[in-house]
Amino acid sequence: MTTVFNVEKMMCGGCEANVKKALANVAEIDAVEVDLAAKTVTVEGDIDADDIAKIISDAGYPATPA
């Protein structure tokens, strides 16, 4: 399943790295793609969208499904 999230507080490469790091160790996630210009994160994997949003938000970047 692929889910896209709006992550408005992402501003730079450091933000991108922090989001990717927060999601890196989640076994159910197969791939993460960050688009800084669009301020979106696309996640592919077998995990609930609310769980992904919470992980990203807990890393300091409030996320909502697009």
Write the layout of secondary structure elements.
Elements: E1 2-6, H1 13-24, E2 29-35, E3 40-45, H2 49-58, E4 64-65
What does this structure look like?
The two termini are 14 Å apart. The radius of gyration is 10 Å and the shape is globular. It has 66 residues and is α+β, with helices and mostly antiparallel strands. It has a single domain, classed as Alpha-Beta Plaits, CATH 3.30.70. It is built from two helices and four strands, in the order βαββαβ. The model has no long low-confidence stretch (mean pLDDT 96). Helix content is 33%, strand content 30%. A hairpin with a 4-residue loop joins strand 2 and strand 3. Strands 2-3-1-4 form a four-stranded antiparallel beta sheet, covered by helices on one side.
Number of helices: 2
Distance between the ends: 14 Å
CATH architecture: 2-Layer Sandwich
The main sheet orders its strands as 2-3-1-4
Order of helices and strands: EHEEHE
* Beta-strand residue fraction: 25-35%
CATH class reads Alpha Beta
Shape: globular
Mean pLDDT, all residues: 96
Radius of gyration: 10 Å
Find the count of extended strands (DSSP E, 2+ residues). Answer: 4
* Percent in helix: 25-40%
Count of domain modules: 1
Describe the biggest sheet? 4 strands, antiparallel
Helices and strands: which structural class?
alpha+beta
- According to CATH, the fold-level topology is Alpha-Beta Plaits
